[in-house]
Amino acid sequence: xxxxxxxxxxxxxxxxxxxxxxxxxxxxxxxxxxxxxxxxxxxxxxxxxxxxxxxxxxxxxxxxxxxxxxxxxxxxxxxxxxxxxxxxxxxxxxxxxxxxxx
Length: 102
Prior knowledge:
- Helices cover 61% and strands 6% of the residues.
- It is mostly helical.
- Helix 1 packs parallel to helix 3 (52-68).
- The two termini are 14 Å apart.
């Protein structure tokens, strides 16, 4: 595998991640530091492409934000939001643990 720093990922391929960030944005009660992390992540996803290392960082941020939202956060979501969050979490796990499959 080539150096992940130089591998570019089309942000359209990260749509599940983006939708999960939107769910967290709309439904989670986060403090100002987590809100800044969320806003920075969403801003990064507005680019046409990001480096693989950035995509993996975004994936890690998503998992941190979900955890920060609380242990009952996913269970309290409406069905459509829960589906989007689950798809984003799955994509995040794929990027972190098996980037060739993401």
